[in-house]
Amino acid sequence: MFSLMKRNLTLYFKDRSGLFFSILSSLIVLGLYIVFLKNGMLKNWSEVPHTVKVLDPWLIGGMLSVTATTTTLAGINRLVKDREQQQLQDFLITLVKPFLIQLGYFLSAVVIGIIMQIIVFLTAWGYFAYSDNIEVETNVFLPLLGLAIINAFSASAISLLVVTFIKKLTTLSTVSSIISTASGFFSGIYIPIGSLPTFAQTLIKIYPGSYSASLYRRLLMNNQLSSSFKHLSNNELIDFKKQLGIGYQWQSMTSSTQEFSVLIIALLAALLIVAFKSFFENLLRKDRRL
């Protein structure tokens, strides 16, 4: 299993073009924000002091959610490539159990997701620290790393679930393009959730990645929100959070504990479905041999 992980990680990080395209969606999000979205959002929230220092971390939170989605999917795509190129069959005839082989693909995607989230965070933070003089408190780094790990596990499980049902590279390419494009929307970056109709808001609220974006925003924006809204009413702060997806409105606003629970449930549910599918496929193989 560990040799398979090492192989997958080596192939991912050696493929420079694949590496670039796996974070392209995050870079596009950053570019769109700088060129088009930022000025409009600054005008909309001009009554909030130090608005730019509130909105920049908001964007970073969304970028990290997108990064986890696209990079773990790119990492676990190796499973489909190996299946189509018959390399997966070579692994299956060894003494290694099929479960451990799938676990190797899954864990390599988790490692990729963690590393790439760290890289994107440092890149975005460095840019905004230079351009807008934003600061991130040092006591936030450890919780951020913990969230990046949980987010990578959850996104990898969902990616594994997706690719488990894909047999062809052509199908994989199409699905990957759709997910990469849609991830920015579902993380509430291109258009803040408060500006969308009810149906679109519901779609975002049932997407697990939107909750990782909210958790990141809570961590990155907490101190600045307290500072910027100290002379404004609590209702204005609540409205700001509703509009920008820092928590989501169901019967009441979601808490960080509830959002964390969504990621864990998504992780366990995806792995459970994959396990059941693998179990029944193994039963069918045994029946065919009899």
Automatic annotation (TrEMBL):
Residues 17-283 form the ABC transmembrane type-2 domain. GO terms for cellular component: plasma membrane. GO terms for molecular function: ABC-type transporter activity. The chain crosses the membrane at residues 20-37, 57-80, 100-128, 140-163, 175-193, 260-280. Pfam families: ABC2_membrane. The keyword Membrane applies. Keywords: Cell membrane, Membrane, Transmembrane, Transmembrane helix, Transport. The lineage of its organism: Bacteria, Bacillati, Bacillota, Bacilli, Lactobacillales. Belongs to the ABC-2 integral membrane protein family. It is a multi-pass membrane protein. PANTHER family: NODULATION PROTEIN J. This is Transport permease protein. The keyword Magnesium does not apply. It is found in: Cell membrane; Membrane.
